[in-house]
Amino acid sequence: MKTKRIFILNGHPGEKSLSRFFAETYAAAAMDAGHLVRLCHIHDLEFDSDFGFGGYQQVKPLEPALETVLEDIEWSEHVVLTTPMWWGGLPAKLKGLIDRAFLPGRTFDTHNTRFGLPAPMLAGRSARVIMTADTPGWFMRWVYKNAMLIQVRRQILGFVGIKPSRFSYFASASHPREGMVERWAEQIKRIAAVAS
Fold this sequence. Notes:
The chain is α/β, with parallel strands linked by helices. It is built from 6 helices and 7 strands. It has one domain (5-193): Flavodoxin domain (Rossmann fold).
């Protein structure tokens, strides 16, 4: 098995969360399997999550925390994101990180287009998204049409070239049945061992 460089971002803004537990579970299992791991908790990052402008003519200088996240993504071969689904989308701080850090010239190239779309600059990396929610999986698929999964896979990760992206979806996360978190953790350990 090939050793991979893995960057794990826990996108839950709380100090303690199921997303943090899953990120740390993945990190430990990946390191046990011989992979190189960098782990980041968005709770610990200090940055202004408001992009603040209407276009890319002006951008705020990136805070050191955002520069480090970008450097870790650039270093990685596999990106792991743990996140809850809140109100059908990403937590505001995580979305703010993407708004601020995924900029032209760094993650996509507006001077090199194909079919009107900028060229991705983070190609060559795969991803695993570990998502928690209270929405049942069948409801997510049939009623919400997997909208958040499509947004993260195509409009965020795929747009900058991070693909393929695979998803692990765990519900009902707020009130799991007895033993369910442990079973979910075992699934995460298995995917971490092979860095998928």
